Amino acid sequence: MSKASMSVPDMRHGRDGGGRRQYVTGYVLSLVLTAIAFVLVAFHVLPVPLLLVLLMALAAVQVLVQLFLFMHVTEGDGSRVKGLAMGLGLFFTLAIALGSIWIMTFNSQVQ
Predict the structure, then answer these.
(1) InterPro entries from the xrefs (predicted)?
(2) pLDDT tens readout for residues 21-52
(3) CA-to-CA dists, residue 31 to 28, 34, 52, 78, angstroms
């Protein structure tokens, strides 16, 4: 690798100087969201039903932070394929979660 090519930012992988700031921002946001969830649960700040809704909202925001700031979902080619893959992943996740809840709800009636 020549000395000239080492000083030029690698634009193919998004390492143009703003990447580091993006990772630090994502890391700090992840820490803050996790700390908020921990404090809410550890100190019983809210009633349980409201707490569950708020925790799910915090989890959704955490997923968005991970996808956009760390996994760079909007960058690069094939954004349609990425969108379809994420939709399929969301479908499987919801199917497993809702199926598990359904099984746990009606398990006592079967036994």
Answers:
(1) Cyt_c_oxidase_su4_prok, Cytochrome_c_oxidase_bac_sub4
(2) 989 999 999 999 999 999 999 999 899 999 99
(3) 5, 5, 19, 30
Residues ≥6 apart with Cβ < 8 Å to 94: none
| Residues, the chain | 111
Strand partners, 15: 10
Q: What are phi and psi of 28, to 5 degrees?
A: -65, -45
Sequential DSSP letters for the chain: --HHHHHS-BGGGTBSSHHHHHHHHHHHHHHHHHHHHHHHHHTT-S-HHHHHHHHHHHHHHHHHHIIIIIS-TTSSS-HHHHHHHHHHHHHHHHHHHHHHHHHHHHHHHH-
- Integer angstrom CA distances of residue 54 from 51, 60, 61, 62, 99: 5, 10, 11, 12, 22
In the structure encoding, which two tokens stand for residue 32, read together?
Answer: 């803050």
Q: How confident is the model over 101-110, as pLDDT tens digits?
A: 889 888 877 7
